[in-house]
């Protein structure tokens, strides 16, 4: 029987293997996405389930950097338009509500970025920039997964780490550091 620490170590190994598999070329480049987002009027972030939670964490860090960011579905989220970017995290790239969001964003003149396992997916086809992360979708069975973790956990963890790496790249591009980001930190806690 494995201990919790053994499982933790295995998860870290899976994440290390994932980082090597991330494509960073052409329209699949995290650096390209960082450049695009650094020039965006506003960045709108969305995802469903746990992927959506990772997106919320990303939007929060963007706000800390002084980037105008919004989480799709919040009551204070304004309309999207020209000069804005929609960033969607979806393992399968087929989540119906996210596909509808991408279509609406395009119709409003916004650009779309997708972080997914499947660049050939419907969302991947809509995207101006598609970043491919390794992992299994929740629909894949154990023989196909490549992870001991349930459902889409490896993708969701990789998504959070990718978003954090993207924040570091944006900080570099914008000349930011952690010290000047505290000025935007919540102070009503």
Key words describing this protein structure:
5-stranded parallel β-sheet; alpha/beta; 6-phospho 3-hexuloisomerase; isomerase; SIS_dom; 12% strand; single chain; Rossmann fold; 189 residues; carbohydrate derivative binding
Describe it for me?
Keywords: Isomerase. This protein is α/β, with parallel strands linked by helices. The chain has helices at residues 4-21, 30-38, 49-64, 96-107, 122-126, 142-145, 153-174, 178-181; strands spanning 43-47, 69-71, 85-89, 111-116, 129-132. α5 (122-126) links the parallel β4 (111-116) and β5.
Please give a quick description of this structure.
This protein has helices at residues 4-21, 30-38, 49-64, 96-107, 122-126, 142-145, 153-174, 178-181; strands at 43-47, 69-71, 85-89, 111-116, 129-132. The chain has 189 residues and is of the alpha/beta class.
Give the SSE string.
Answer: HHEHEEHEHEHHH
The CATH topology turns out to be Rossmann fold
The gross shape turns out to be globular
Helical content band: 40-55%
User: What fraction of the residues are assigned to beta strands by DSSP?
Assistant: 5-15%
Radius of gyration: 17 Å
User: How many structural domains in the coordinates?
Assistant: 1
CATH homologous superfamily identity: Glucose-6-phosphate isomerase like protein, domain 1
The major beta sheet can be summarized as: 5 strands, parallel
Report the span from N to C terminus.
42 Å
- Mean pLDDT, to the nearest integer, reads 89
Number of distinct beta strands: 5
SS element count, helices? 8
């Amino acid at each position: 029987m494995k201990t919790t620490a053994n499982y933790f170590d295995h998860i870290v190994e899976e994440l290390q293997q994932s980082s090597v598999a991330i494509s960073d070329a052409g329209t699949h480049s995290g650096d390209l996405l960082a450049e695009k987002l650094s020039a965006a009027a506003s960045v709108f972030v969305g995802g469903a389930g746990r992927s959506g939670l990772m997106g919320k964490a990303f939007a929060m860090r963007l706000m800390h950097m002084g980037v105008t960011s919004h989480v799709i579905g919040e009551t204070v989220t304004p309309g999207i338009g020209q000069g804005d970017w929609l960033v969607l995290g979806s393992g399968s790239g087929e989540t119906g509500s996210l596909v509808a969001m991408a279509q609406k964003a395009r119709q409003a003149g916004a650009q779309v970025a997708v972080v997914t396992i499947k660049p050939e997916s419907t969302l991947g086809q809509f995207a101006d920039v598609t970043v491919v992360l390794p992992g299994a979708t929740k629909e894949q069975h154990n023989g196909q997964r490549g992870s001991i973790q349930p459902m889409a956990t490896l993708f969701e963890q990789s998504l959070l780490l990718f978003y954090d790496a993207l924040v570091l790249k944006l900080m570099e591009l914008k000349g930011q550091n952690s010290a000047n980001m505290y000025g935007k930190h919540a102070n009503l806690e």
